[in-house]
Amino acid sequence: MRLVLSEKDLSFTAVVEKPWDRRTEFLALSPGGEVPVLVEEDGFAIPDANAILEYIEETRPNPPLLSTGPTARAKVRALAGFFDRVFFRDVVETLVVEKALKRLQGSGEPDGFAIRRGYQALEEHLKYINYLAEQHKGLASDALTLADLTAAAHLSVVDYLGDIAWDKHPEARAWYSRMKSRPSFRPLLADHIPGLPPPVHYANLDF
Amino acid sequence: MRLVLSEKDLSFTAVVEKPWDRRTEFLALSPGGEVPVLVEEDGFAIPDANAILEYIEETRPNPPLLSTGPTARAKVRALAGFFDRVFFRDVVETLVVEKALKRLQGSGEPDGFAIRRGYQALEEHLKYINYLAEQHKGLASDALTLADLTAAAHLSVVDYLGDIAWDKHPEARAWYSRMKSRPSFRPLLADHIPGLPPPVHYANLDF
Questions:
Q1: CB A198 within 8 Å of CB A160
Q2: What are the tens digits of pLDDT across the range A27-46?
Q3: How far A20 CA lies from chain B's nearest CA (Å)?
Q4: CATH number reported for the structural domain that contains residue A143 in this entry
Q5: B74 and B142 share one domain
Q6: What does the alpha-carbon distance between residue B162 and residue A169 come to, in Å, rounded to a whole number?
């Protein structure tokens, strides 16, 4: 979300909300108690990440991040959804639980089998990203789209947790290198999880 | 999805796909192996329920099911997302597992505590639906929107699994009665789960 706001050159203030506190004022903005919520200067509030993204695209159309024309837009939305659900479930969630959460929470030993499964899935996904990046500069088209931002954001989490084997996927590597060097990614690359430092290559644009 | 297609008076052929078969031809249409997938007559295929809905709205705008104008559309998308995630998780999923799946699969006794929790959540959600239906004819506006279709589709599952205590929620009841009497709901109300007949009131429009 902050990548989208940044790519559209929109200024915003990020406010931390702990949904589990279920504050009454927050539930008035988000009846399901879900984050994120976008609050406009006039007080208009929208919960639901998808509703927020579509609203930003409708009210601040430049640069377009969903591409132009119904079929191109359908491809971008489907691809962004793929990374948000399938890549997240197969790769990010598994590796975050095994390599970070268990260590931070002291909730047991990492499951080596699960970690291997996560990296095997990552390998399949890198093949797919490499294939897409062979067709055009971005994953969905030559222009930057929400699909690039979504995929790169999820990949940056995996990258934070350890080395990614880029050798077999040169086009994917070149694409991710371009994404990392975008100004919108700077704050994200500067993020650190307390108690879990990133590998040395993490913020390196020439990894 | 079929409600949206029906409300827009679009003809379609539903094809059953078992995603767990992971057919190569299907994975070519949906790289994540997810259903639903929309296939146009010219072969253009879109996976991802959200991408499909937005594509249908962009290419077949009448009647509009996302409302008109960015703020109204944001409300509709957020409300539809709320029912798809929060209502589904709190109510539908719990009751389907406890009241249907366990019986159909013979996988243990229903958990009375979970069922009570599901019905308590339903009660809260009915209050919210009643509140929304007091403001306008539909849940998001006076016109029918995706929010009405999404909410009514999920409610119809709960209704199938047993009685809903409508007494305290007259506006919600009137709204749901209007939804049930729409022609688009007829095929849905005629659906039966083998081995699990619906209660007698299920397809009754004057429940």
A1: yes
A2: 999 999 999 999 999 999 99
A3: 14
A4: 1.20.1050.10
A5: yes
A6: 53
CB B75 within 8 A of CB B148: no
Whole-model pTM above 0.90? Answer: yes
**Residues A74 and A141 reside in one and the same domain:** yes
Model ipTM over 0.85: yes
pLDDT for A152 beyond 90: yes
Residue B163 to chain A, least CA–CA distance (Å): 24
Residues of chain A positioned with their CB less than 8 A from the CB of B53: none
What are the tens digits of pLDDT across the range B33-91?
A: 999 999 999 999 999 999 999 999 999 999 999 999 999 999 999 999 999 999 999 99
- Does A65 reside within a domain? no
List the domain range (segments joined by +) for residue B129: 70-190
Number of domains in chain B: 2
Mutate to test the interface with B, among A30, A53, A54 (most CBs of B within 10 A): A54
Which of B59, B87, B105 is the last residue in one of the domains? B59
Domain assignment present for B199: no
- Widest CA span of chain B, in angstroms? 51
In order of A181, A198, B207, the CA distances from A191 in angstroms are 15, 9, 55
Q: Rounded to an integer, what distance in angstroms lies between the CA atom of residue B54 and that of residue A53?
A: 13
Residue B13 belongs to a domain: yes
Across the interface, do B74 and A82 touch by the CB < 8 Å criterion? no
Residues A54 and A98 reside in one and the same domain: no
